[in-house]
Amino acid sequence: MIPRRLEQKITAALKTNSSVALMGPRQVGKTTLAFQVAKTIPATYLDLENRIDLQKVQDIEAFQKVNRDKLIILDEVQRVPEIFAPIRGLIDRERRKGNKTGQFLFLGSASIDLLKQSSETLAGRIAYIELFPVDAMEYMKSAEDSGALNELWLKGGFPESLLADEQNSQDWRYNFIKTYLERDIPQLGPRIPSQTLERFWTMLAHSQGTNLNASKLAANIDVSGVTVARYIDLLVDLLLVRRLPPYTANIKKRLVKSPKVYVRDSGITHSLLNIGTYDDLLGHPVVGKSWEGFVIDNIMSILPPRTRPYYYRTAGGAEIDLVLEFSLNERWAVEIKRGSSLSLSRGFYEACQDIKAEKKFVIYTGEDQFPLPHDVMAISLFSFLKILQDR
């Protein structure tokens, strides 16, 4: 088992909030993490996909009354959004009795934004936390642990995929994709043919890290641009795809304003593209963009609260792969390179001036940290994540 960084954060959140929602895609480790938390405090667990457990919450007030002194863990809570209304009354009742914290832990396989729409009745009574796939800080011992980094990049961060041997990892990811297409997505309501959605998901993997071109994607699968937008929304809500917005604030230049789109987990990206081995990956045209998406998702997993991520690109060619805005007056520029050449284009330096970047980094596949011209720091992914963690 891989220790997860969020365990302490969840425990701390339960000490200050009546309820906590832990969100993340299926099989990312939410249930395992919840059981770890439950080892430290009295708790009871219900899986709302289990028929018997679902019956237990039909009268959530009676169930809570019997388990009043325990943390109630409700798994796959997005399946029963109507449960939040009565839970609000339970939380308020317990607050009046002096029990203000640690009553419910919700686990869900949808985005925080989607859950917020369902649980808006719990405003002021709930904290939201997202569990990402395993990242480099959790899996590597140090920046010199290049073997672990390459394995994480190839297999992705879903624990069962990461800890399996190469063939079983491939099989697990294939079944993961198939299960989402044939079971999970239909259960959420959208009537989309699984073959069409698989083609679309695979197209996104082929165009990893490029600007969203809805009309081109629509033409390739013979649907409308509106339908493509709906497919993107669905995969974003399921935490399988990321839209990285452009940085546009106070820039008096012609900017590229369509979002960049990434399949979030590198292992899923590789399975969609039928990339099985590390050698296959290094020889594939997507290798550079795969590394870029892998680095970005690792960074997202550890960003300090309220940090806003963007990319930056002008029509004239000035470009930054990732802009991290910590406040109105503090922005970092991050360029992502795979390979031995760390030469930076004039467009990167111009873009750094445009956004007034306070710090500039190049994250590359090596282990050392060293300065480059114009106050740019070359750094490994592991070391950059440690800087973010220590902020």
Q: How does this model look, in words?
A:
It is a single chain. This protein has helices at residues 6-14, 30-38, 51-56, 60-66, 84-96, 112-118, 136-139, 146-155, 159-163, 166-187, 194-206, 214-221, 225-237, 266-272, 278-282, 287-300, 346-355, 381-389, and strands at 19-23, 43-47, 71-75, 104-108, 126-130, 210-211, 241-244, 260-263, 308-313, 319-327, 330-336, 359-364, 370-372, 376-380. By secondary structure, the protein is α/β, with parallel strands linked by helices. It folds into 2 domains: 6-130, P-loop containing nucleotide triphosphate hydrolases (Rossmann fold, 3-Layer(aba) Sandwich), CATH 3.40.50; 136-389, Arc Repressor Mutant, subunit A (Orthogonal Bundle), CATH 1.10.10.10.
How does the SSE layout of this entry go?
Layout lengths: L5 H9 L4 E5 L6 H9 L4 E5 L3 H6 L3 H7 L4 E5 L8 H13 L7 E5 L3 H7 L7 E5 L5 H4 L6 H10 L3 H5 L2 H22 L6 H13 L3 E2 L2 H8 L3 H13 L3 E4 L15 E4 L2 H7 L5 H5 L4 H14 L7 E6 L5 E9 L2 E7 L9 H10 L3 E6 L5 E3 L3 E5 H9 L2
Parallel strand pairs: 1-4, 1-5, 2-3, 3-4, 11-12, 12-14
Antiparallel strand pairs: 6-8, 7-8, 9-10, 10-11, 13-14
Helix pairs in contact: 1-2, 8-14, 10-14, 12-13
